[in-house]
Protein 1
Amino acid sequence: MNSILVTGGAGFIGSNFIRHAFEKSGFKGRLVNLDKLTYAGNPENLADMARACKGRYVFVKGDICDFKLAGRLFKKYKFDAVVHFAAESHVDRSIFGPKDFVETNIHGTFALLEAARSAWTGRKDVRFHHVSTDEVYGSLGPKGKFKETTPYDPRSPYSASKASADHLVRAYRHTYGLPVTISNCSNNYGPYQFPEKLIPLVILNAMEGKPLPVYGDGKNVRDWLYVEDHCAAIWRILAKGRPGETYNVGGDCEMKNIDVVRSVCAALEELLPSPENPALRGRNYENLITFVKDRPGHDRRYAIDFSKLRRRLGWRPSVDFAGGILRTVRWYLDNPGWIKNVRTGAYRKWLKRNYS
Ligand code: NAD
Ligand code: TYD
């Protein structure tokens, strides 16, 4: 690969992926990051990378739904791979306002597929990798795991929009022969995650002595994967995956939400003991746990069978939850400036200065 288009590279997983590409994968080419910079996109995530990889890293502020822009970028940069992260990604937001999810996740994916189809007619030496989620498979009972062959059963506007995109990607393979791969991954956590998702929200609230909201009975189960392991899996699929294939990615780490929240509290007790944190005012972190009204249509359990990726491409997670959560909590403790900017929207001013 000489020229890669990454979409949504200013978000959580995309920025970790770009870091992985430049620092760990041995990639020597050029990488273009196309991102609209919604509330979730933050170019500050990659400011050091932009400096270190000047000339090889290009940032383009733009919307993946813009057909003409996508076409122009394919022409100008002659991409031989696309890694498509850009999406509206938060289930709760999709419940309150599904429109942006349909636009970006479905129409945006369609626009990129069209640009790729037109630029790559007849080519086999290229790849369109679509980053998707395990949520397309629906919700599990107490037993079993999602396999690549599990029928789709999305149940939130978010998962329905991602499922639609997955179907479009497969249709472009089947109908036009576009060399695509898809990965369906479980819940990620790690540095640079926007504090609306469970783990960073709980870390920040706990640091500040605020309530830690746990939906319903706290017994919903998710399968957690450290973000760097997800990035390594995507890179492996890009390099070695077979066109037309789907690969499940997971952490082999099923946990009830309440246990995840307790693990965050334990990590904080280790790194910033509650008696030393004035925001706690004599309480400990676990005292902040507050059960709140459940999410409508809350999926009960996700669990991923990633044996295909392990068997065929030799990938497995390298970071266990105990280690990953310590690294994650430490990162948020070490980066108060990032937290302040993300929360106050100050990075938008920085953005204006640098990108307008
Ligand atoms: P994120 O919300 O942190 O980042 C999304 C990025 O996409 C942001 O930088 C945003 O500015 C950009 N974006 C949004 N709309 C855009 C548009 N119309 N045009 C261009 N850019 C746009 O999301 P994330 O958590 O990093 O997730 C990335 C991808 O991985 C998504 O496709 C998501 O469905 C998938 N995924 C996420 C998880 C998870 O646990 N976070 C798990 C599995 C799969
Ligand atoms: P989230 O991080 O939003 O990811 P997803 O909905 O894609 O799995 O939520 C993870 C789990 O945590 C999910 O079961 C909902 C629950 N949750 C809470 O209990 N409290 C919260 O404040 C949030 C944001 C999520």
Protein 2
Amino acid sequence: MPQLRFSAVEEAFSRPTVQFEIPKEKISEIFGINVFDRKKMQQYLSKDAYESVINAIDKGSRIERKVASQIAAGMKAWAIDRGATHYTHWFHPLNGSTAQKHDAFFTTGAENQAFETFSGDLLVQQEPDASSFPSGGIRNTFEARGYTAWDPSSPAFVLEQTLCIPTIFVSYTGEALDFKTPHLKSLMALDKAATEVCKYFDKDVKKVVSNLGWEQEYFLVDEALHKARPDLALTGRTIMGHAAAKDQQLADHYFGAIPDRVERFMKHFEIECYKLGIPVKTRHNEVAPNQFECAPIFEEANLAADHNQLIMSVMDKIARKHKFRVLFHEKPFKDVNGSGKHCNWSLMTDTGVNLFSPGGTPKNNLQFLTFLLNTLNAVNKHAALLLGSIASEANSHRLGANEAPPGIMSVFIGKTLSKVLDELQEKVHDKKMTPDEKSELKLEVVGKIPEILLDNTDRNRTSPFAFTGNRFEFRAVGSSANCASPMTVLNAAMAQQLTKFKSDVDKLIEKGIKKDEAIFQCIRKLIIASKNIRFEGNGYSKEWVIEAEKRKLPNISEATTAFKTFISPSAKKLMNEFYVFSDRELQARFEIKNEIFIKKVQIESRVLADLAINHIVPTVLAYQNVLINNVKGIKDLFADEREFDALAKPQLQTIKKISVHLKNIREKVKEMVEKRKEANKIQEADKKAKAYSFSVKPYLEEIRYHIDKLELIVDNQMWPLPKYRELLFIR
Ligand code: ADP
Ligand code: MG
């Protein structure tokens, strides 16, 4: 008898809601109490030290060693006041997790005197042993050291008695080994390029900031059930399991009432987030049962990316307190929707203008159009690389599965805005009008935009990249991804596009064309060029795949093919031009992506072989024996052949059916193991990953097919693993 499954189900279904004390204070009163933000810096730092940090944040200026010591002393004093005993550099290595190594402030001096210390040197830079983090060949073993360096633009915070200092992580030779370093570089490149373009419209603009508002989708599973599913525990997803009779067909979960237990958990982790300065705002049920979403108020992109990494670890910890496990895997359950992480992206000037929000003056509208069209063209030019930036083993289960866009990039801007672009394209072209008439007409068209957008509720949820009124929403990003990865590519692509735009407009101005007219002419070209990437229809449809092929848009949902975009000539040119990645760094990322892919498939394949042979096959044989004994009994009781046939026929058929499935499972497991062995002999990571993708991975589905069929045949009492109907519905 599968004890584990039944005791797990019982435990999960009778689990009481975990209580915890909700603070009496208003959210605004606890918000950021564990963050060393500007207010606390003012309190704990000297005027000089404070100004030095602020300049570093706002202008990227260097902090001198002497001042760093003062800052460290102030930071330590604040952290100890907040109950911290330890400190750590907090960074995002390329294995996708958050890394930290805690050291105590406490130390001993002469005569064993104990005291707390934290120096400026330790704040600014540390040298963790980098040998266990993926480096893609950048780090030789004799250069195992890596450097972490303080990122003052993301404030330090106290998490469970440890002062966490956000840092970048680079190799001994200076190459990035993390997500943050290239992200920061791309933000700088975009700031520079966008500011230059903004100056056409407003000379006072000195800085353009990227904003990011992510929407984090996730599943919750009861802890006991999670424990009873080795596949969930080891791979983050169910690699077998037949669909429940009812899951999301009735769409009755989406935006429905949040189960009590879950709401408690949400409130709990949200409170922890508020203390850490993460401005979480929205919570709701998602489409699939047990699937939920959480979204904050958008923030400056680097901080938002850090906050997303932080929230995933906070959610994981708090979920355990509520006897849940939170799943960030992109596709934990077959046949129900997977999870994404929509990245809402916008650009804002230091004069307070959202560059994706029209309105105010015709000038503002023209600026809006400039940025909108440059975005469309940036996405068009680097569509393949953007797909590469969101590609992973797990996300490939989700893309194109009729719940998320296929591996084709397209941009949705809505019918009304498209019409404005068409109109504008014609007006700029009209040769019969005088320049003044033209300008007036064009401004008239441009002037209509704000009203149009105001009542334009046009939404297309099937688009991987959609304009949603005042921002773009990159929807193809996977739920477990680090936002910095897609954002880095997007920012760099945009920086390149804006730089080109600026140079094109300047060339026309040099020829004596007036500025506005020059901008209109360049915009017209962008309107035409952007048609290729604009798509208003159903992104999940078969027609779109055919249409996209005609447009020569890349269609890449197989992960290892997508990885290759990182080492394409156009990626190298882009990333070198804007100092975001060197060729070596791109090559390293390519290697790392492949290595992670190999390991993920390898683990899944091992877990599946174990479960199939050691859990499923013995259970099925036991059930088959029950049937065989039943048939034998019938034979004893009914000597008459016709009577026997009538009574035993269904069982005999099932016995045969079972044998066929068992034979298939055994054979395919054997073949899969052979294919794994062959793949393991390959040295180069990319070729090995391809072997895993094309000759090992397909077995996972094939074997699963037979197991899932058997799940429907075998006595429910004997089935060893919690079923979908048990896993997917929190009581
Ligand atoms: P929906 O699911 O309808 O797209 P949500 O409320 O779940 O909307 O999430 C919207 C996300 O977009 C939030 O994270 C929000 O902060 C973010 N957002 C809103 N305006 C902007 C903006 N101008 N720039 C970047 N992100 C934004
Ligand atoms: Mg949402």
